[in-house]
């Protein structure tokens, strides 16, 4: 199918080889399967340290955790802010993991980049063009999440903003889209994985946690994502999901489930 493309730098026509992003020896993109795991939100030094230990022990490479949380309602917990960045950086360093955290405004890009190895743009900010432009001015890798109602073309144009600004280190993240179905929180669009890889050279990461909103669906959809060719997974895991500070405990894996999944993915990796 021929579609008119308004993006250029994000396109595979422009850049035929897969982009591989390397940070401190960890490769993301191409044949490498990167695993990012951790809580929805950084809550305390003890919480993030213990989860980092478990992510590392299970074989993950990147610790996820939000210090700034984009909550749907203004009265919900908004994240602990810069203190959380410091806690996560310490945990990442101690356990030998890269870190990824969400940045919501251009003003906070520099401080987030000072403490984290990868910056996440959330689904609600995919078309926050001032934020995208600011992220184009640095070289820190960016995980750009697909807007929950964004077409592939809109998604790739959002990536184009960052690339056009001069930052080539962009990863695309499918995290589920809004459909008529309400059983799941979002509908994880598995076809997005091969489609984006055909249209673009950028790594494609799948988020089966936000993509389903249900813990029991994370394992099958993580495996399906890998079978569909995902370059990596970002998965929520918590030591005490029932008491997590965001509502995302219901989609967070327990540590033993996370470890089991990674072990099984390793075996699946040999098959696909
Ligand atoms: C998150 O990763 O915790 C998050 C808020 O993700 P999304 O932007 O995909 O909802
Ligand atoms: Mn979350």
UniProtKB/TrEMBL annotation:
GO molecular function: 3-deoxy-7-phosphoheptulonate synthase activity
Key word Transferase present: yes
EC number(s) from the headed UniProt entry: 2.5.1.54
Keywords, sorted A to Z: Transferase
EC class of the enzyme, as a word: transferase
Residue ranges of domain DAHP synthetase I/KDSA in the record: 21-269
Protein name in UniProt: Phospho-2-dehydro-3-deoxyheptonate aldolase
Organism: Paenibacillus plantiphilus
Full-protein interval shown: 63 to 334 of 353
